[in-house]
Amino acid sequence: MNKRFLTLTATLPLIVAAAPAAPADPLAASFRAHVAFLADDLMEGRGLGSRGHEIAANYVAQHFARLGLTPAGDNNTWFQRVSFAESRFASDRETATIETGGKTLNLENGVGLVLSPGNETGVEAVSGGLVFAGYGLQDKAHGIDDFAGLDVRGKYVVVLSGAPDNMNSEEAAHLARTSKPIAAEAGGALGLITVRTLKEAARLPWEKFTPRARLPRRVLLSANGQPLGDGASLKVRASIDDAAAAAIFAGSPMDFADVQAAAAKGAVKGFALPGRLTIRRATTVERITSPNVAGLLPGTDPRLKAEIVVISAHLDHVGLKANPKPGEDRIFNGAMDNASGSATLLEAAAALAKAPPKRSVLFLSTTAEESGLLGADFFARNPTVDVQRIVADVNIDMPILTCDFGDVVAFGGDRSTIGPIVAAAARAQKLGLSPDPQPEEAVFTRSDHYPFVRRGVPSVFLKTGWTDTKRGMACKDAERAFRLNNYHEVSDQLDLPFNWNAAAKWTRLNIAIIRNLANAPTAPRWYQGDYFGTAFAPNAPKAPKPR
Hints:
By secondary structure, the protein is an alpha/beta fold. The chain has 15 helices and 20 strands. 31% of the residues lie in helices and 23% in strands. The strands form two sheets. It has an 18-stranded mixed sheet that branches. A two-stranded antiparallel ribbon has the order 7-8.
């Protein structure tokens, strides 16, 4: 027996003695074990395309296999491989030149300009005229077409950030995110240049926005290697500060100050701008892949098993810190975000596999949520099961489990008949169901259920609420503390003050919701008149909305 082995065995009792005691609740202990593995330093922050994320994906797949689920990825495997183009700047500096009225203004990326890398490797100068398109929105339901009468082909489209204040915040966020690049691309524009409203400038000062300059950009790739997504073929996406915006609007029908003032009151009609803009940069593009993991639990009812309820949770996090100081922690472990959601998904799979419900259940562990919901978006565009069979998605992302919560929030629950099912499951656990506490944040459009919504699938995004079990607001304070101190920080790790019994309660709630959805006599339906149901499932049967 060698000396090294003797040394290791001699220290084992000390290691065991130092290990934290497992929670008394077996579900809490199992939940903690999943989080401990997925948030371990060995996973290296589960960054997109990293070895650590691949290990985590295999961990999820093997749990699916152990439970007897059916592989639901590509080619009868657990994995759906997703391809991405990751673009980075190859230049030392990037610039924009604005020429208008005989004057020239030069901007540098990270100063008066926030510019994304391009789609292709190489040095380029992208030059074109300018057209202002108001907020840049198009939507039949709202009767909006900010591009009407404008010729944007071969030009830069200048748009205001966000959407008018008089719109529903979730619908506004959806349109601001999607319709601007889609309409610009459809019109043949070179790129999209965003100028800021007074509201946006007050919310996020320019100096807080400029750190986004020079960040890498990731886009989905189709099977033939082409960019895939909203406005994916646009050559340029950038934002400029107010001084640069003033220069662009000089000599136009409205100066920029007047445009901002008008935008604070509502929509602003677009017009041609007199100047010319040239972007100069160099880009390098690398192709990377990362897997979604999918396992299917077949339903038991001969008729209803054809329908599928999805439970989704993203597995990726943000990886490693780029330039750590000597001795500094560089691993973004992502214990709460979203090892906790992944643990919920795994425990739900274990519970439901023991007693399968009538409908089939798809357990979907997504990649690239942190890069803009890209893994879920790819699955929704290229589903490995018939998307017409998917009747609901319940999404789990970053529940706050440092507090014994007394209520939950179901973002989107007021838009479909999933809401009452969530409410009933919450009542059974003596939990409240609270409305969205921050509707201005439009959370309904900001996690992996959203691509399912865009395919017409009734969906909810579940989060722990703000009240604690004593009806105080300790859980609001806990969420605020996490967001201020730990969100996307290296401190989001296992030594956070997790309440593992609360995690077990959270998991049991989600299991009940999925089981009730999968056993319900009828599949979930959008409510009559709901914007998303009307826009994305116009021919699907609707339910009357409760008063």
